[in-house]
Amino acid sequence: IAATCALYNLTPTEFSELHTQAVAAKAAAYCPYSHFRVGCVLLTHAGAYIPGANVENASYPVTTCAERVAFGRAITSGHRGFKAVAVATDISPPASPCGMCRQCIREFCEPSVPVVMFDGSGGYSVMRLEELLPMSFGPEALGFPSQA
Amino acid sequence: IAATCALYNLTPTEFSELHTQAVAAKAAAYCPYSHFRVGCVLLTHAGAYIPGANVENASYPVTTCAERVAFGRAITSGHRGFKAVAVATDISPPASPCGMCRQCIREFCEPSVPVVMFDGSGGYSVMRLEELLPMSFGPEALGFPSQA
Amino acid sequence: IAATCALYNLTPTEFSELHTQAVAAKAAAYCPYSHFRVGCVLLTHAGAYIPGANVENASYPVTTCAERVAFGRAITSGHRGFKAVAVATDISPPASPCGMCRQCIREFCEPSVPVVMFDGSGGYSVMRLEELLPMSFGPEALGFPSQA
Amino acid sequence: IAATCALYNLTPTEFSELHTQAVAAKAAAYCPYSHFRVGCVLLTHAGAYIPGANVENASYPVTTCAERVAFGRAITSGHRGFKAVAVATDISPPASPCGMCRQCIREFCEPSVPVVMFDGSGGYSVMRLEELLPMSFGPEALGFPSQA
Ligand SMILES: [Zn+2]
Ligand SMILES: [Zn+2]
Ligand SMILES: [Zn+2]
Ligand SMILES: [Zn+2]
């Protein structure tokens, strides 16, 4: 963990808090259809933690994943500048964000932002956004400046 | 407004608060692509107000509308039992929730829940969910109980 | 059926074909997660029938419903001007299009277009788009002309 | 191009056909909101080419990208086993599939499937799915076998 923190520029307290809060967020998932709980927490450069969990719908495509719930809450609460994204699930190896959520992260984060994936038994993996979504599609393709 | 409040079982204070908070929420929209600001606020039977606004994405389908941002936040914060949904936009007549958002409301609200639509010049319309999404698709079609 | 055809300006052959093709389309559904098969067929004023079925995804929000598969295929094949939309499921009473799909129909069809919903035991219901999605959100809200 | 074909196990004719058909598919895009045309074509191991283009909606999240239109059409037409995915846009460097579409490709293709991205001036890039969506989320996370 010390090495992970050094590599991704997180303090041990931040890493611990990401773990605790992502797991806590998971408990709030509404997932009667998949029974697959996902928790997410965003850490801003200003030090705020914003949680989210998956909110499913009987019409499956109307589902909002944990990451997008968290970004929806964060962005509309005025937060910008994200230092880390953490997700927690009950499986091992840990689940990664789906492609749709990687695209959401892409809209608001630097390519180097770390995405910490906690599994159900105390383990974790970390990958940067640019590793999870290489050669990404973004605002620039539409002629807009980056929003991150 | 008095008649509207009586019809939909809202107090004048609640109606006023829905208006104020939906308009305030609108200011937090992230909509560089459509430039179409939408604010939303949910009122629970317990008296809580939960805001949301649209959060767009360079990949348009990854956008989350204001209503779904608000429900994502509300549901994962533990809120259940919604007394009213309000949306605010800058146009007149007022914009209504898109079909995708009506489906989201359907998952968590009674058919009789009022949806208040505020326009950009002080006017409003109100329709119940069962009027906005008649003969709706829901959890029952999949063999699940209603979640509202 | 004769009365239905007269009311919605369909010939008995067209109605029969909508039934047959919607049920046939249902067999092509890819739905390992919901096990809820939906078939759809669109009839154009020019007499073409374009089928679709639901295509799910392990990330539930990436799912495309039957109606949107059919419209995607139709629109990108150059079809415009829809006379009827039909959907078929295995349940009774028949399932209706979800709100997201009603929004898709809204983009490409007149408000009066009939949506025929076939159930799993030979029955059906019909409602016009304007009945399924009253006071709808559409291109006009964004300042665009209707595309229907 | 010869080296590309050798690397990705495509014949020069297949590569040429992917280019021609992806560009042709692009012309069928319905994109009044973004004005960003995307064409897509899928090549199956059986030798079929299935086209798609983006189909937008006034409610942006109801949009279906070109890749998902193509997969919707292909899967519901009974096609399985994809040898290559090609997309074409009008910009240079070429646009890549958004994260949501990478997730769709993930559902139906082997990790090694090549995704050919044609730009607007005769150039192209190729990346395998496993490069575009590393450590991907898929059916296995939900306890389902891979569908590819
Ligand atoms: Zn996701
Ligand atoms: Zn909406
Ligand atoms: Zn649908
Ligand atoms: Zn896409």
Please describe what this structure looks like.
Four copies of one chain form a homotetramer. Chain A is an alpha+beta fold. Chain A has a domain at 1-82 and 109-122: 3-Layer(aba) Sandwich (Cytidine Deaminase, domain 2), CATH 3.40.140.10. The first copy, chain A, is 32% helix and 19% strand. Chain A contains five helices and five strands, in the order ααββαβαββα. Chain A has helices at residues 2-8, 12-26, 66-76, 99-108, 129-132, and strands at residues 39-44, 49-53, 82-88, 114-118, 124-128. Chain A has a five-stranded mixed beta sheet. In chain A, strand 1 and strand 2 (49-53) form a beta hairpin. The first copy, chain A, is globular. The mean pLDDT of chain A is 97. Chains in contact: A-B, A-C, A-D, B-C, B-D, C-D. The structure holds zinc ion (4 copies).
